[in-house]
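User: Reviewer 2 asked us to show a designed sequence for the structure in our supplementary figure. I'm pasting the structure tokens here. Could you produce the per-position amino acids so we can include them in the response letter?
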């Protein structure tokens, strides 16, 4: 006789919802499944039916309370214990809305599409004040809300007026109109293998832009000749936090990295040397590993200043390329010093900022621990601090509490800032810190540029604009954006001589110019949008290239939608029936013998939508080639 096994009933599935009136659309299916799975009635099934009502899976609170306690002492009934041991306790599936911010049910918070929804249990994400949400925050409606404008007259003190006129001879009495670069004229998509961390323009050549990334690479890009670019991959092994050109030699670039080294690189030969290494013994643990963050050059003394993640300042002689003096503690021990800036008019003044919630002013003639001239207090970490570029009499700081703080005069009262401007730049992990920077060409020293963290809904796409702010009034002068740039742009740099803005968004670089100075893209023969890294690794739904684990996906797409590139069709494949556009593009490149090249290009139509085009071409020449292609694509 064959052995007989005892069938057990399938455990009940209980669904918890926000409201009792809400019913599941699949309740009938669940009942059918229960009937199919039910076998011969077992001894414990009647006890199990007492915990449900009408077989719908909804729990009755009164029955649970009566069955779960005995004699008012909270002791479990033996039957319930038996059910738990047999594994027949109903399975509960919760469909309640849970907040991603406070982890409590009943409401939702966070980004929903292009709109940010605040958690009602938390203060406003923008201004950090309770009583309202980010969508209704008055600082989001008008960024100048609560800002006290600067007085029209600089000062009423005679002595201070004389000092300011000596320091500010180039300040115009009449404020000129701002020139805002608000249109992308060229770009390199996925130029770096990791996110961009810093940008620097060449001091003498207006068309050269240098960029550093998280992997330690340094890129050199000629954005006038869009296709001429180079990446130095063996300079550093970790994040490049700052770069500065040598004042006496415009082909030498200094870079400070989180690997604890300062490098000096010749851009003509590509040769690099290490000036200082704070980790000669390699990795010995996080408690001893030193990383270099803030850096600046005192051209008058020929000294390179750099600070680390333990609060110390180091000096390197640029003439002998060697370390000089001892390390000086300028911030709280164990805190990062993320920014250094020498006064452009009085080089002996040094401004530093760090994670100890302070920005400090120092006199380099008597530089020692605890000898700061003034300590500028902040509520949270200070990302950057800069003197004004022309007179050096103003200070602009960026803090993680979503505040831009301005001191109108370093000769006045520095106990409190002249004004605070609320701006969205408080970010989470895996993002380069936002830094508000002066416009070096503005004679009134009142224009600053900074990227925005909270996205805005523009025709259904979540875009993160770049803001130009008048720091004298707190007003938003302009917000520039492009529907094809859906990533955050935390790194922004204004050209010191031309009306150009360079922005680093994830691994890509973008060059902005004013619209009246930008040539229409349709009239250009050469494509100004370059896509790099497509041949190494590919991923569905995005341009080729590996995803950066510490940044958003790189997308240069039309209206927030991802293009999907299709493989080149074979000769036997049928031709597409619907032809969308015929494109003629000139490509300029260097080739090696018998090499298969795959080109991706983006062609804008009359609606400024970008369509991808793919070519496969075999080159058998070693000289510089100029090739013209006619391609037909469809979608």
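Assistant: Here is a per-position design you can include in the supplement:
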């Amino acid at each position: 006789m064959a052995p007989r096994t005892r069938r057990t009933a399938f455990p009940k599935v209980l669904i918890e919802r926000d409201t009792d009136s809400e019913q599941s659309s699949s309740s009938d299916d669940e009942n059918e499944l229960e009937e199919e799975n039910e076998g011969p009635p077992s001894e414990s099934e009647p006890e199990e039916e007492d915990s449900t009502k009408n077989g719908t899976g909804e729990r009755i609170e009164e029955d649970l309370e009566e069955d779960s306690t005995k004699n008012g002492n909270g002791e479990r009934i033996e039957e319930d214990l038996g059910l738990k041991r047999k594994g027949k306790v109903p399975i509960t599936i919760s469909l309640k809305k849970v907040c991603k911010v406070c982890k409590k049910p009943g409401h939702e918070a966070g980004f929903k599409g292009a709109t940010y929804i605040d958690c009602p249990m938390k203060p406003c994400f923008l201004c950090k004040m309770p009583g309202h949400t980010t969508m209704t925050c008055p600082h989001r409606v008008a960024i100048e809300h609560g800002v006290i404008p600067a007085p029209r007259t600089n000062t009423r003190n005679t002595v201070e007026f004389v000092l300011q006129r000596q320091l500010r001879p180039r300040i115009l009495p009449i404020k000129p109109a701002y020139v805002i670069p608000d249109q992308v004229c060229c770009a390199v998509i996925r130029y770096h293998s990791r996110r961009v961390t810093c940008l620097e323009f060449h001091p003498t050549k207006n068309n050269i832009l240098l960029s550093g990334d998280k992997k330690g690479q340094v890129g050199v890009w000629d954005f006038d000749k869009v296709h001429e670019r180079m990446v130095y991959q063996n300079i550093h092994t970790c994040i490049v936090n700052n770069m500065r050109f040598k004042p006496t030699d415009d082909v030498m670039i200094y870079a400070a990295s989180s690997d604890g080294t300062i490098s000096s690189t010749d851009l003509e030969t590509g040769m690099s040397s290490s000036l200082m290494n704070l980790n000669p013994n390699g990795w010995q643990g996080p408690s001893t590993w030193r990383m270099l963050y803030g850096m600046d050059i005192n051209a008058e003394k020929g000294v390179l200043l750099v600070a680390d993640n333990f609060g110390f300042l180091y000096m390197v002689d640029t003439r002998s390329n060697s370390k000089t003096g001892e390390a000086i503690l300028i911030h709280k021990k164990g805190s990062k010093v993320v920014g250094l800036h020498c006064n452009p008019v009085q080089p002996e003044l040094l401004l530093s900022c760090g994670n100890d919630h302070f920005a400090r002013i120092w006199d380099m003639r008597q530089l020692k621990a605890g000898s700061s001239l003034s300590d500028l207090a902040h509520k949270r970490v200070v990302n950057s601090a800069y003197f004004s570029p022309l007179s050096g009499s103003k200070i602009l700081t960026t803090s993680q509490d979503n505040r831009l703080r301005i001191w109108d005069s370093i000769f006045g009262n520095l106990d409190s800032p002249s004004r605070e401007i609320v701006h969205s730049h408080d970010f989470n992990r895996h993002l380069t810190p936002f830094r508000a920077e002066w416009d070096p060409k503005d004679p009134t020293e009142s224009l600053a540029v900074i990227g925005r963290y909270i996205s805005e809904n523009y025709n259904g796409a979540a875009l993160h604009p770049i803001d130009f702010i008048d720091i004298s009034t707190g007003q938003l002068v302009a917000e520039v954006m492009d529907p094809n740039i859906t990533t955050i742009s935390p790194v922004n740099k204004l050209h010191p001589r031309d009306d150009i803005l360079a922005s680093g968004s994830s691994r890509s670089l973008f060059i902005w110019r004013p619209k009246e100075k930008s040539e229409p893209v349709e009239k250009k023969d050469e494509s100004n949008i370059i896509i790099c890294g497509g041949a190494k690794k590919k991923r569905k739904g995005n341009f080729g290239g590996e995803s950066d684990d510490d940044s958003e996906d790189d997308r240069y797409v039309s209206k927030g939608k991802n293009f999907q590139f299709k493989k080149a069709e074979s000769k036997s494949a049928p031709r597409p029936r619907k032809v969308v556009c015929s494109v003629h593009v000139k490509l300029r490149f260097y080739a090696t013998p018998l090499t298969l090249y795959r080109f991706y290009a983006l062609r804008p139509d009359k609606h400024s939508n970008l369509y991808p085009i793919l070519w496969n071409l075999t080159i058998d020449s070693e000289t510089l080639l100029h090739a013209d292609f006619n391609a037909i694509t469809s979608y």
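For the response letter, you might also mention the following. The mean pLDDT is 75. Residues 181-513 form a domain with the Methylamine Dehydrogenase; Chain H fold (CATH 2.130.10.10).
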